[in-house]
Write a structure and sequence with these properties.
alpha/beta; 6-stranded parallel β-sheet; 6-stranded mixed β-sheet
Length: 322
Amino acid sequence: MITMTEIAKLTKVSQPTVSRVLNGNMNVAPDIRERVLACAKEHNYQPNVLAKGLQGSKTHLLGVILTDISNGFFADVAKAIETEARKHGYSIILFNSNYNTDNELEYLDVVRRYRVDGVLAVPMRETSEVWQGYAEKLEIPVVSVTRQTKGLDSVYVDHAEAGQMVAEHLSHQGYKQFLFIGKDYDLKYIGFRQTLSEYGQAEHVANIVYQDDPQMKAALKAYLPCREKRLGIFAGNDIYALRILSFLQELQFLVPAEAGVVGFDDTMMARYLKPGLSSVSQPIERMAQEAVSRLLYRIEHLGQHPLWDCPLHGLLVPRQSS
């Protein structure tokens, strides 16, 4: 790849003059300008965006940090963010933390070194104050996507509301025992349990933190002692739900007659499973549009601004699993 110094030698002008031409400065003689531009085009000159970042110019790069790119939902989120960013002349650099704190810290350091203009992130622990400290150290705008994160601008689906929808659905379908698969601090669980409590079902609600498959299967088996009391299961994401359906089949429980399952994210697999998986759909494109728009606003308007909170509504899509 040709450099400004090499262009200067080929066109017999100074390197600062080449720099002015390639950075759009019009205070250069027309014949010199044409000569430099023609040489740059002939040799496919590409600007060094990192060098521009070091000079204080925008790189038009956005860092995107996700927790698990193998999850189809997050793959769709990344695609939607990239599509929206490109509309505004930005490219993305994608990082997968794989739910690993060390990876998350490392990638935050990498985006700083790459001089990205801003970061869109799915924090591992959105209820922690840690991310606010990360953002302050980065000294660039950060917007949290899919999760309401303390101290950051956030665009997300209202998880508590989603939990309420699932609780109402399973209750109306006649389930008498209820199980949530995921963390107990997850707002989906909090909304799920609160709604069932209002229905007088609080003593019939349990929570299992997903570990590995053998432990999950054993824990699930313990909650399936009585086939007469139908068990309604709300899984924290579609991947959990898929595994739960597999375990129920191994344990010879009929779905949805004896146990019903609802997932979260409404990924592609939810639509093509047999039985089809009931799941809560998230407006991914709208989420990406709002998040990118807010991040670009922060980039253009540096300084202190009130935190921005943008809750969106999920949609429960009932299928044969419940």
